[in-house]
Design brief:
The complex is a heterodimer of chains A (111) and B (116).
Chain A: E1 3-6, E2 11-14, E3 19-21, E4 23-26, E5 32-38, E6 44-50, E7 56-59, E8 62-65, E9 75-77, E10 86-93, E11 99-101, E12 105-110
Chain B: E1 4-7, E2 10-13, E3 19-25, E4 32-38, E5 44-51, E6 57-58, E7 67-73, E8 76-81, E9 90-97, E10 105-107, E11 111-115
Parallel strand pairs in B: 2-11
Antiparallel strand pairs in B: 1-3, 3-8, 4-5, 4-9, 5-6, 7-8, 9-10, 9-11
Classes of the chains: A mainly beta (111), B mainly beta (116).
Chain lengths: 111, 116
């Protein structure tokens, strides 16, 4: 079956540091890939997405590129802020529309 | 983006009682809604897919008699946890797809259930 693996947290960073959260996947066919963010006490919010190989999703300074050759969709941000503290989920959507989520990575940004 | 609401946002109940959680699509008609369960510091696990006007499709290992899903209208799906036990305590999240080529899922804010 499909699966999504992302790096374990928590990831603790200082403000303005560079953030990378690794995400790899296994899937049949050609899935779409997503990053969702969950702030404390809230539901998931779509951060960015990519629907085909070599697509780059970007939003709010975050970027991720759909790499089919390495089956990866790593999330990056060049300069994090305290407000970026949250849990980040990598996810894929298969050809039938079913989502599979990674375990989530907690990011803590300190002033 | 689309707005999905859930009610209540949190609920505490005694063991053995039943709890109903509502999921509403506020600005578009949702023929399909999804129910997820999230344990602390873990990922979302799909419980079931709720289709308007038909029976829900449950994922393997999810007890359909315990987690009753009703999708009676295009804007409302309900999840009823029957005879709740402490191990049912969790964060329950619904989502719906806007359809079309994007088929982006929009998530509700979640309902935290605590069973004493």
């Amino acid at each position: 079956g499909n699966s999504v693996t992302q790096m374990e947290g928590p990831v603790t960073l200082s403000e303005e540091a560079f953030l990378t959260i690794n995400c790899t996947y296994t899937a049949t066919g050609y899935p779409s890939l997503f990053w969702y963010v969950q702030y404390p006490g809230e539901g998931l919010q779509l951060l960015l997405k990519a629907t085909k190989a070599d697509d780059k999703g970007s939003n709010k300074g975050f970027e991720a590129t759909y790499r089919k050759e390495t089956t990866s969709f790593h999330l990056e941000k060049g300069s994090v802020q305290v407000s970026d503290s949250a849990v980040y989920f990598c996810a894929l959507r298969d050809s039938w529309g079913k989502f599979q989520f990674g375990a989530g990575t907690q990011v803590v940004v300190t002033p | 983006g689309a707005v999905v609401s859930q009610h209540p946002s949190w609920v505490i109940c005694k063991s053995g009682t039943s709890v109903k959680i509502e999921c509403r699509s506020l600005d578009f008609q949702a023929t399909t809604m999804f129910w997820y369960r999230q344990f602390p510091k873990q990922s979302l696990m799909l419980m079931a897919t709720s289709n308007e006007g038909s029976k829900a499709t449950y994922e393997q290992g999810v007890e359909k008699d315990k987690f009753l899903i009703n999708h009676a209208s295009l804007t409302l799906s309900t999840l009823t946890v029957t005879s709740a036990h402490p191990e049912d305590s969790s964060f329950y999240i619904c989502s719906t797809s806007a359809g079309g080529l994007a088929r982006e899922q929009f998530f509700g804010p979640g309902t935290r259930l605590t069973v004493l």
